[in-house]
Amino acid sequence: MKDTDTRHLSWDEWDELRRPAPGETDFDRVVAGAISRRGLLGGVLAFGSGAAAMGLGTLKGTTAMAQSSRFAFAPIAAQTDYDVHVPEDYEWGVLVRWGDPLFSDAAEFDAAQGGDPATADRVFGENTDGMELYEIDGAQVIAVNHEYVNETINLPNAPAESGSVVNSEEDATKLMMLQGVTVMEVRDGATGWEVVVDSPYNRRITHQTPMTLSGPAAGTPLMQTVADPSGTEVKGTLNNCGAGRTLWGTYLTCEENFNGYFGSTDPEVEITEGWARYGIGAESRYAYEQYDSRFDISVDPNEPNRHGWIVEIDPSDAQSVPVKHTALGRFKHENAAMVQAADGRIVVYMGDDERGEFLYRFVSNGVWEEGTNGSALLEDGTLSVARFTEDGTGEWLPLTPERTGMEMAEMLVHARMAGSAVGATTMDRPEWVAVNPVAAEAYCALTNNSRREAGATNAGGDAMEPAGPNPRPTNEYGQIVRWRPEGGDHGADTFAWDLFVMAGNPQVYDNEYGGSPNVTPGNMFNSPDGMQFSSDGLLWIQTDGDDSNEGDFAGMGNNQMLVGDPETGEIARFLTGPNGSEVTGLTWSADRTTAFVGIQHPGGSWPGEDGMPPRSSVIWVRRNDGQPIG
Ligand code: FEO
Ligand code: CA
Ligand code: CA
Question: What distance in Å separates the CA atoms of residue 114 and residue 215, rounded to the nearest whole number?
Answer without folding.
Answer: 40
